[in-house]
Fold these 2 entries.
Entry 1:
Amino acid sequence: MATLIASENFSPTEDAEVLRRSVKGWGTDEKAVISILAHRNAAQRYEIRLAYEELYREDLIKRLESELSGDFEKAVYRWILDPTDRYAVLAHVAIKKPETDYNVIVEISSTLSPEELLAVRRAYQLRYKHSLEEDLAAHTTGDIRKLLVALVTTYRYDGGEINAKMAKSEADILHDAIKDKAFNHEEVIRILSTRSKTQLMATFNRYRDDHGISISKNLLDDGADDFQKALHVVIRCLNDPKKYFEKVLRQAIKRAGTDEDALTRVIVTRAERDLKDIKELYYKKNSVHLEHAVAKETSGDYKAFLVTLLGQED
Amino acid sequence: MATLIASENFSPTEDAEVLRRSVKGWGTDEKAVISILAHRNAAQRYEIRLAYEELYREDLIKRLESELSGDFEKAVYRWILDPTDRYAVLAHVAIKKPETDYNVIVEISSTLSPEELLAVRRAYQLRYKHSLEEDLAAHTTGDIRKLLVALVTTYRYDGGEINAKMAKSEADILHDAIKDKAFNHEEVIRILSTRSKTQLMATFNRYRDDHGISISKNLLDDGADDFQKALHVVIRCLNDPKKYFEKVLRQAIKRAGTDEDALTRVIVTRAERDLKDIKELYYKKNSVHLEHAVAKETSGDYKAFLVTLLGQED
């Protein structure tokens, strides 16, 4: 379930007019920006952009970027984009960091459906005139590169068939590879990047049943390197995205110096999807409401924007 | 230019009726099958299949498979399919051979446009309930696997921009890798599988200008192994598909014992695209008309079918 409370009496022209007033002249009325944008779904936001362009002959996104600043600006920018386009931007930002943020790449490639991932690859090309895998491969090396490129380029079969024999044999391949620490990377990458999600669930279950420990626990045994950590994220994203996102939020909040990028990313990407479920998981795990934790760690317009997206009524 | 001479006065119902008469009862009227199917384009063949199904409640393709045999059956089957579906079948056949026929995989992944390749991956899943890369990775190993999987999963940028500096630096990377024979496979695969075709043309040109030899010649210097041979095919398919297909035909015909699979594959996949240009290239290189060479090496209905697709009037 989503947390977004979208407006029901919606007029793109009126919204565009309010936004125009709130950015025009000296100063910006951030409250007005939040009260509109944090209550509009993706289709509505798109209509507002069109209406604004039509009325004022300027790009609303560019105007907001020049009027807002800091984490609030980043959050509004990510939020206002179409979800597919937003993932393309998030992937690009992750790739272009001095050290590619491979968690974000794993997250995008492993939590989206095969068709959604293809759409993101298309959006990435339109925006950056390169393919996603091209930029990714040029900015990474070694085993991590092999894993990430395989994950973003795959177009998994989306059907529900399970091959039980294959689940057993591939659970064994994964177990041997993890046990020996002499990772047979090629085979691990092949299995995790090409099998359907349904088949992988069967393989992970078989792993746990045959070997008495879950594969994700097994991967973090001791002294995990970057590649193992990345595999661990892959498996968590495939296995249970909501649980994975709850943990990303928890770590972003608990860190000394909040990780605003992660906080923003999870909230804007999930608010229209399943943030309500993630909030419930968060409460179960932390005995604190997510919106209270977020409010405690953030401030100003940024805080107001996030808690509104989290479903808090104004 | 295509060689196919498609019918202009076309009635799917009449065609379905003629085909029905030609397969009904004892024996088959192969001439009638050829005179219809070898003169219908993809859209027309699809309409005939629909009309046939509607009229006779059976699948025309299955019926033809049971009535025809040998190379003729294979050629008709491949031809009647929608081109996207046909590539999925060709890829599947190549993968399932005792030794995966990597040339066919390279050919499909490197001669199709990025969007066409995506469509083939979609068609493959619909047909086989697995992804193309999943089956391919499960049937290959080592460096060849890395190369082939990277080629089929890529979604290249399709724009015309050229980065001249990158063309120079990547031409050098390719040259060093080839010169040292200590192939830096990872980098070679990265460049060939992720860069846009336009960028790769610039890189290959730069290679030739800076190093005094074309990359494809350089790759076959001496003692090329399977991986080098596959790279060679990749580069030829990217560089000049028509020239590549001419050579496939030449080798299929010249071999002791014609290579019917290759002959059929090139003729059915190119007849509606550019087989006329390929025929002209063939004549230039061999001083023999392709349809005469094909007629000499084949016989019966198979021969009649191929030469009709090659544009010979009945």
Note: Chain A touches chain B at residues 118, 121-122, 125, 129-134, 137-138, 145-146, 149-150, 153-159, 161, 186, 190, 193-196 (CB under 8 Å).
Entry 2:
Amino acid sequence: MALKTLSAKAAAALDRELMSTGAFSLDQLMELAGLSVSQVGNVGGDGLVAARHLFHYGYQPAIYYPKRPKNELYQRLVKQCEDLEIPFVDDFPAALESTDHVVDAIFGFSFSGEVREPFPAVINAMAETKISVTSVDAPSSWDIHEGPPKSGVGSNFHPNVLISLTAPKPLVKHFKGRHFVGGRFVAPAIAKKYDFDVPKYEGIDQIVEITDNQVKI
Amino acid sequence: MALKTLSAKAAAALDRELMSTGAFSLDQLMELAGLSVSQVGNVGGDGLVAARHLFHYGYQPAIYYPKRPKNELYQRLVKQCEDLEIPFVDDFPAALESTDHVVDAIFGFSFSGEVREPFPAVINAMAETKISVTSVDAPSSWDIHEGPPKSGVGSNFHPNVLISLTAPKPLVKHFKGRHFVGGRFVAPAIAKKYDFDVPKYEGIDQIVEITDNQVKI
């Protein structure tokens, strides 16, 4: 099975369509996306939902969340994690010392341009750590179409695992690790309209691993 | 492991707490509840969410939904099913002829009193069918505390499978089939406050089967 990729513009239009004519709420989409992320192993709001599910799976997540959007949904997602006593940490490099897995949910498919403070040090730490890193939709700092920056922050960041939500983005041609697709909620008609393939999920899984040469680039 | 039961009053208070101090939206709770239901095999809004997930699992669900609440969330859940071209059927007994499983999500834990039209014929059909029936939280027509009615509609309704959301309700002492608990999103502090046990879910499952003698009555 070959999977087509979805441009940043198309991915944004798809999100808008799912929340208008598709009648999904952002709460629903983020819940399903975060559940997919949690099933890969261990992103912004998707990261908070994933941390909550991971707690219930028996893991001991900690959250680094230095830039907090003020909107009500994000505030509720934070409260749901606080109620589980999931710790929020301020020092990312220090937190790396006491974990065995990182979920990189900093930037999503709408990222472009320069990495702003305080994230350069965080991306450098993820680039240099020996523990496994899973990025959601895009390794943070990567261009959605062009992949890793040619130089500077992120140029040496190659996460071990990538989970593409709904459909792979064009940057996957630069990615060499294990690749999953999640977000099992797209109607066939929508996939057809946006011209991407819904992968063949197994059983009740919310994710599916994509093996080499399955992505059309 | 023994599981305590949750009274109808406590279950309603828990729902209110999850949506106030717990910061969950109804969208999130219904998404997670419906996902649990879909994982049992195949309930109002929970039933709509379950039908959507079942479609994505590869099943061919059909929905009998004669009494439609006018609120916006239920309208969106219907639209999400319509977008998958899941058929809505008007004749429940006829629809039974062409399926191999029924999810009974008619009444929830807040039901009490008499079964009103058009549901007596539906409950009689579920009582008499030979195909497997899965009820959500309570077999429809059963009293949450007392179980099946002593006579009349529902007195002979014994579904094959029950999925209790969050915690079993007292009626489980009258239930003889396979019993699952779903709704893996309760914070330990909330479970303690409401004095029920969170069952030991395995792996990433959103449901867990409860074997005989595990429920405290």
Note: Chain A has a mean pLDDT of 85.
